[in-house]
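Figure 2 data, in text form.
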Amino acid sequence: MSTNPNEPSGFRKFIPGNGPLTPESRRRVLTVAIVAFVLGILVIPSLFSSKNVKTISYSTLIKDAKSHQVLTAAINTSSGAVSGQLLDGTNYTSNGPSPAINTEISTLQNGNATVTFAGGSNLASTLLPYVIWIAIFGGFMIFAGRQARGQMNGMMSVGRSKAKQFSEDRPKTTFADVAGYFGVKQEISEVVEFLKSPLRYQAIGATIPKGILLVGPPGTGKTMLARAVAGEAGVPFFSVSGSDFMEMFVGVGASRVRDLFATARKQAPAIVFIDEIDSIGRKRGAGLGGGHDEREQTLNQMLSEMDGFDPTEGVVVMAATNRPDVLDPALLRPGRFDRQIVVPLPDLEERLPILQVHAKAKPLDASVDLSMVARGTPGMSGADLANLVNEAALHAVRRHSTTVSMEDFESARDRVIMGQERDTMVLQDDERERIAFHESGHALLAYVLEKSDPLHKITIIPRGMALGVTMTLPEEDRHIMSRQHLEDSLCMRMGGRVAELLVYGDLSTGAADDLQRNTDLARRMVREWGMSKEIGPMAWGSNNQVFLGEDLMHTRDYSDSTSKIIDDEVERILREQESRAIEVLTLHRRGLEALTRALLEHETIDGELAARLIDEAHGEPVHPAGTKTVSSLTGGAKSKSPAMPSEPVAVAPAASTPAPTWQPPTLPAV
């Protein structure tokens, strides 16, 4: 049942002034009207008929007439029926002879009764019931015929294109609404200029690309760029999703492709935009146990329309996908999709204008520095940044504030990256202590190691699926990773496991995700990136997709002996980084305990406080040139080392924790 108070209820839904009538509503209105009409014919006459009419015999009527008891008498000359009123006010009816006998008529008149005569047979009144029923039956047959024609028209139109056409008078997005992506907009704007002034390009012999494929991760604004083309071009723009071509009937998709291009060809120059083209453009003949006949026919028709015997002039096809590797090679060749435009994740210079666009309509506090927010959000897409600004506004509402401050952006970034806090989860004291040591191990290695990402924040408050989080952020956008950076990342993830070993002498399940990610990264270092002396400059490992039918059994292209070498190298790399983590944490054991006490007391500490605790426990700055941390958005991107206190920080003696039963292994010789 609808709970909308503004929605009309009952028959108000069907009144023309309360909204458009759907076909289902029209059918219900017609059905109710027919039923009401039939009931009216059957019931209304009986309502007007008198319930006090008394039926008497004809002889009794004559007897009452002789005794002057009949007041009125209406005689039907056709049927002989007599009706009227007696002297006592009783209405009567009687069946007399037809035609009426004159002597009996004289008897009624002599009895002081008022006698009237009704005419003969009324043809109209006799045929009226039949006419009404014939009209009802005819109306029903007409209604049923229209419904059948509508269904037939729906079946006949199943092959028509579902593309939406955008015209110039509709609200539109322009390139000015798309922040950043200057190179991408430059390439797409050439298509717009060609469609507006084709003679300028034809004069020099240049031809516009027939197809433009926008490739990039999800959320980078590929569809928004296509809408901007629609707003800038000033030509008919047809937008359709790849899934709109697919139906349960074989051949429907190909028919819709033909109809789409035929419509666009009539209105050329025009632009056809196909979103998520990978749903119909996958490699042909790649299905498991056979091909997908409907999808392949649709793809074949699209290939023919884009560059076949009947080339389409003046129709530019734009498409978007985040999976170009699964597309059919015939679709990507020159002549079809001549140009592939990569829409990458925005860099630092592009994140700032994107944030400015999304924050334009929001009241920002004077302390908000969007350049600081852009610097602290590497790797975020345009959709992520829009979500970040919205989360900041929601956090401001929860604070009962009328403006959005940097505190809100900081909380929003933590919410997006680390997940929502689970305040309802209650941890035991021993669990909190173990989690604190685990996260302190990660944080200490992230701060001490040279090439690891700078430390930002540590928390033992459960967030998302994690019981604790150590958050690191790169100081700047990074596009390639050195071997030393990868090894420091492996060592940093080993910190939680190693910290538990050093303190408790045993292990827990808390390092499951760390071990999984480390194993995957080490295997890629060996198999794909050639970072193993034993394997050398070779790469193995198929990237084919199982759903394409190309790597169903995950076959490998190397021998069993090579597989053993790969496994040994992965194990060697992981054990080396575990030994490094043990060595570093043993050296900075006092800093590990200081971090743990701070986490148990405050639950969340930032990178600057963690760096100060580690430096103070170590007795000197670990990084003399400055702390390797990324501060909160409310501070700077990088902070200098604090002044050392006059007295060292008191640290609990090592005897307060149980002695480990497991000894650190020695580092292997390089």
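Caption note: The first strand starts at residue 53 and ends at 55.
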